[in-house]
Specification:
alpha+beta, five-stranded antiparallel beta sheet, globular, HIT family, subunit A, 5 strands, 2 helices, binds zinc ion, binds guanosine-5'-monophosphate, about 20% strand, about 20% helix
C-alpha cells in the first residue's frame, strides 16, 4: 500500500523514533510546529478517525495509554497538546491515523 506512515511504521522510510512496540510507533515530526512535536501512529493502517470502529479502536485507547510516557521520553515536562486532523477541512495531509503531541514550550491558546 502506498502510505507514507505505513512505510515509516515498517522501517522502509527512516524516522527519528521516540517509542515503538508491537502496536504503535512514535517519531519526531519532520516539520515541527513547536520545540517538541511528535507523531504517534498505530502500525495498523487506519486512514483517519472516520475509520475507527469496534474492531480497531483498541489502537486508539492503547495510544492514549502510552501518550504520557511518550511525551516524557520526548522531553516534555510541563504539559502538551494532542491533536488529530480528520479529513479535508481539518487539512489532514497523511491518510493514516496519527496523533500530534505538541509541547516543550508555552503554546498559544490555539494552534492549527
Ligand atoms: P496532518 O497534516 O496529516 O495532520 O499531519 C501530517 C504530519 O506529518 C505533518 O505535521 C508533517 O510535517 C508530518 N510529516 C509528513 N511527512 C513526514 C515524513 O516523511 N516524516 C516525518 N517524520 N513527518 C512527516
Ligand atoms: Zn498507512
Amino acid at each position: 500500500m502506498d502510505c507514507l506512515f505505513c512505510k515509516i511504521a515498517n522501517g522502509e522510510i527512516p524516522s527519528k523514533k521516540v517509542y515503538e512496540d508491537s502496536y504503535i510507533l512514535a517519531f519526531h515530526d519532520i516539520n515541527p510546529e513547536a520545540k517538541v512535536h511528535v507523531l504517534v501512529i498505530p502500525k495498523e493502517h487506519i486512514p483517519s478517525c472516520d475509520f475507527v470502529n469496534a474492531g480497531n479502536s483498541f489502537n486508539v485507547s492503547y495510544i492514549f495509554e502510552k501518550i504520557p510516557h511518550i511525551a516524557k521520553e520526548a522531553g516534555i515536562t510541563n504539559g502538551y497538546r494532542v491533536i488529530t486532523n480528520c479529513g479535508e477541512d481539518a487539512c489532514q495531509s497523511v491518510k493514516h491515523l496519527h496523533f500530534h503531541i505538541i509541547g516543550g514550550e508555552k503554546l498559544p491558546e490555539h494552534i492549527r
